[in-house]
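Pinned message: reference record for DNA-binding transcriptional regulator, XRE-family HTH domain
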Amino acid sequence: MEILRLKEVLKEKGLTGKELAEKVNVTENTISFMSTGRTQPRFDLLIQIAEVLDVDIKDLFNSTKEPEELETLYIFKDGSYIPIGKIKK
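Predicted structure (C-alpha cells):
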C-alpha cells in the first residue's frame, strides 16, 4: 500500500508534478519518485507541498488503519426511525 497519496491530491487540485516541482524548488523526477512510492520526502518538503496544494498535511497520506465497523443507532419517534449516533460493532 502506498502511504503518500500525492498523485491523487495533484489530480484533485488540477496541478501537474512539474508545476508542483517548480513551486517547491525540486526536480520533476523528485515529485515523480514520491508519487510512485520510490522515495519518501523530507518532513520540511511535505510541509511545503501541503502549503502549495492548500491541504492539511494529513491529507497527503492514506490511512494506515482499517476503518472501524460502526453500527447506526436509531430511535423510533412519531412513526419513523431517526438515526442518533454510531457505536462500534
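Pinned by admin. Summary line: The first strand starts at residue 70 and ends at 77.
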